[in-house]
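Following up on my earlier thread - several people asked me to post the actual chain instead of describing it. Fair enough. Here it is, all 506 residues.
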Amino acid sequence: MDVLGSLAGGFATALQANNVLFLLAGCILGLIIGVLPGLGGTSGVAILLPISVYIARDNSATTAIIFLAGIYWGALFGGVVTSILFNIPGEPWAVALLFDGYPLAKRKGKPGVALASSFMASWVGALFATILLTFLAKELADVALRFGPAELFAVFVLSFATLIGLGAESPMKAVMMVAFGLLLAAIGFDTITGEPRLAFGQISLLSGIGFVPVTIGLFGIGEIIASADEAGIGYVEKIAARVGLKDILETFAALRKRIWLVIANGVIGFFFGSLPGHGATAGSFLGYGLARQWARNKEDFGKGEISGIMAPQAAADASAVGSLVPMLALGVPGSPTSAVMMAGLFIWGLQPGPLLFIDHPDFVWGLMASIYLGHLLTFLICLTAVPLLAMIMRAPHGILTPFIVIISVIGAYSLNNDMKDVAITIVFGIIGYWLRKMKYPLAPLVVALVLGDSTERELRKALIGSQGEWSVFFVSPISAILIALAVVLLALPLIGQLRRRGTAQA
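Reply from S.P.:
Thanks for posting it. Predicted structure:
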């Protein structure tokens, strides 16, 4: 009952006029960002993060996080439109929709059903995931309150291990990106002694490398330039569509037959998204794989099977909701997008983690209530505004690319009115473009940059408290178990490689 009472208070906060207005604005902006190829939820949140500073100043931090969360949910839905109608994934997590969404829209001539299936599955998956978030986040935060420096360091190590061991990219590339992020986080003053590090005599570097300019450069400038480079001027086949009442009724009938599939993928996606460093992209592929594995008609997948649309989309949205669990309860970002949102908390003067539930309950429960409202708003907008969203795709990259670059530079400068931030944004825009072309994962870099200071601080606090004895990390059962899990995750790529070699030799 305590949770329900807190959630009721959260709805009272989220339903305030200014919060509803910014939530609606965030959802609409997120839809537009999701439709535009090359931009995604992470890019959109990063580019618009400077605006949230002014929103928090003039309203509250709760309003700011509701605005950013609305962008996240809107982008999740917006990526669906381009995947199904244009056969181009507007978002990384919408790639799985290409397998059955576009065939259902084109070959079977049911674009309205394909869109409605994805929208409805997204909403149902997110609903169950948000219910789990509501009842589990506070419990996990209460447990985390008993964590000391050794346990917290073990949590951070586990988050890095999941990025390396469970990532789809090359494990060595992930290790390199984690190391690069930790190196960037070390620039500036030592968190314990206050001594300057890696500043090379430059006074401007004593304040460190700002997270927001780096993120805007990587995801705002780097991604859009890489997307423009890859897009070219080729012809894009597209399908005009609208979602009518007949499509909704047919989709509802299909959902009734697959309701347990959607709910199961929502629950699984939520827990998968709760793993630090992951999010909707991996969740969508997991959902598609599970749907195909459980299906009796496996031969229909890839030809317009509705289960191949509903399952990955339910898992993707649920994973996105689940990625907020470690951010709120442990102070560890669950995905690149939640890492950017977590940076916003630092900027607004809040400390993510278990104490957030005690010190700022209105913020936490207002955010949770806004997740229910945000997904419902986005769902209703999508059902009525598909033709308008599809028109956004007509914006040529020749206009879109310089516009996004200019907005990114303005956003970076507005943070501190400092040209250093602009320089960092441009430099990391170039670096981000190169990393994208070389297929280096950005998520490990972003998470390591966010967690670098905290990881070092807890490591050194634990060693100072134990007088330099490394056994402190294995005395605590929680710390020992988490580090053991991290070792197992780090060993997974090596085990997989050995198995492949054994199969090849056989």
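The first helix runs from residue 2 to 14. That should answer part of your original question.
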